[in-house]
Give the backbone structure.
Amino acid sequence: MKRLQHLPLNINKQNGMTPSIEVQLARAKAQLSHLQNQDGSPHDATRRLYQRARIANEQLERIEIGRSLLPLLSKLDDSRSNDNGNDSIVEQIVNATCTATHLATVLSNAAEDATEECSSNNWQAVQDWYMNLHTSTRQSALSLFRKWIRQSAFPEEEGCAILQRVLAVNDDRVEQHEEDSNGHELMNEQQIQDWRRVSACLIELQVVHDALMTSKKQQQKNPPSNWRLDMLDEICRPIADRLRYHFLEETAILNQGNNNSAVPGAGSNRNTMDRFPEWLLRYLKEISEKVLTVVNEMKALMDQVVESALLRWNELQHDQDLTQSSLQHAILTIVPQWNPTAYFLREIVRMARHALRSKSYFSHPDVVGRDARHGVAKRAIEQLFLFDDYIQDRLLDSDAKDDEGLEVPRLVDVFVAANEGLFHWWIEEERYGAVVTLRKCADATLASFQKTKGEDEKAANATGKKMILQPKVQTALFPPIAELFISLVHSSRIKWNLFSSLQSQQHYISNVLGSISSDFLDMIHAEATLLRKLLLSSSKSSSIPSDQDLKINAMGWIGLANGVHTASAMIQSCNHLQQSQILDRIATSLDTMRDAIVEDFTTIFIETIVMERAKFASYTMRCPFLLSQSTFDDHRRGQREGSLVSNLHLSMNLNDSYHVLSVIVQACRDSLTTVEDMIANQQSNDVSIAIEAVSTSQMLSYGARAIMKALGTSISQKLLDIAIDPQGMTPEIQLAGARQFRFDATSIASLFSVSSESNGTGPLERVAAASHLMSLSATQLQQLKDTLFELSSSHNRSVFGDGADVMARRLEVESFYSDERLVIEAESMLAVKGFYALALEEALSIINRRV
């Protein structure tokens, strides 16, 4: 504070105020600048040194540019001295292209080495030289290319063949003259060779120029949206001229060297609006098929031209000891991204878009007006989908990358999705058409199960025709309604994938696919209801259906399960790229219906046909008495062939149950055999085809396998209840009764290819193990019981023993579970004996009840 008090203050005598800090700072800067500008100051010396260094740098840049241009100038001087004035225009274009490429390399190297301030003064003249040379050479080459493409009658067959030879990298065909259909010579061999050289020059000029501009501006590697490929533009020009002449009625475009053959839509029907998209898009597809063979050759020619240019640059760099320039790096980065096929297809789609917009087709009163004929707009939209699908397939064939600069527009986005009113109208038409188609198929299927009685019954039924259910043999692996639904799903997937907007895709899925899926489930339910009636229909409620009726009915249920399962797999495959909750819900509903079909058939067949009509319920009620019997009458009425070894037969009331089960199981096996034979006939060494065959086999065999598994589980659970006896209906098990029960159980299990030696742990395996355990001989059972008893009492055994009879003692489960090690040892012991499918308490229950 004391220092501040002694600082001198300049007081303004007029107003008595102190100057501001900003004024003092400005004065200080002015005094410093004055001192620095005085001769002899340190800053003046630094400034003069910087100016001399800058002048020296400019001189070095000039020397470097001159050194880079020296080979080019020497070559040009030699060519001028040897020029006798006889060089053709093609030779001039080739030489000018080489010169332009050399200049582009010099510009690229100089731009990398020079500073921003000095470069504009040193290589501006070289840049002007390059730009003028590039422009004039490009125009000359384009003029020749345009002249020859008209002379070749492109895009006629002859013109496409000539242009394909021009662009072919390896053309080994003998020298020939190309003629048109009238025998007039179109082009000779020399013209074709000249055309090929000019085409290579066009590619090199554009590739080098675009790479030079990209390396200067440091743009991204993808081509910009306004990027043009000169040679392909010239190829597309005759196509665009024809389209305008034939479809847009621009009569000013007359014959320009092309043979304007008749196209669909020309002539008296030109003004017909209802078929305009069909004719237009069919014409463009036919033209594209011919021209794509030409365009596909362009990529190889482009690679060859770039390789040749890079080879010349490598020689130049080796002579002048230069490193790889940014120009070469830009070419190597950009050129692989250019896809001539995608570029050509984009131009074709743009032509179609321009033609439809010029006609204002989807706002024309003959198409969408009140007086428009029904179906015109819908058929036109279908043509748009077919055309877009064709374009996308060709893009996939060409391995086109998803480049933003070469994005191919889609007509359905332009004319359908973008028009909200038209889009919603078309969605409703799609939904209605699909639902009507499904219902017609369902009605035809249901009608095939019914027929009226014959003429001889009409008199007796004077009140009207009485409808009776009549099964019809189904040979297909799934019903026609499922096949139709899968076809509709496939068609719908193609359509919604052609929309680029996710919102449009979801709107289509929810309104069209969701609606037809709901109707499909209702129709499947109706068929299942009819099959249920057929299975239960009989003149007497106690009679068993015939084998033929059972087999036909089972095949119907198998087909329904296969159809719904395949439809669900189809829906899930549609959702592997983009997660759609709607598709997930549809697939879940189909899976639920599929499981319900299997469960419904199993329940009806087991509870009604097997239990009631085949008297399996009577068998289950007699089983406690059967197991308690010690002897049996070997001459019972109605028995099957006996076992020669054990002299046992199926028990009473089990023959019919065994028979109807065998009929259904055989129907399932026949279905599996049909699938195996179908797959065997389609064997191929192709891995993808083999994988598809395995997937198809799994889908088409689902119904048979699921029904067999469900039947085996249901019937074995009833047998298992008899063996385990949770209700306590069988307090004692005699050996004779146990052996009879084992024969019955194993006979039924053998229908499902399950034996007592099977390694599974399902209900069938548990029944086989339980029946085996209860039918052990007295000696085997005594040994097993002694071992288990010793194991259970080992931790609490008295030294003097209790003197009780081991056979009379019960094996209590609690004595094992008191120590976890005892449970493990007991289960291991049972597993070694072959009873691993049984739980410990189940095995102990059977052992305790055996007497």
Remarks:
- The beta strands are 178-179, 185-187, 450-452, 467-469.
- The chain has a mean pLDDT of 77.
- Residues 268 and 508 are 38 Å apart (CA to CA).
- The first strand starts at residue 178 and ends at 179.
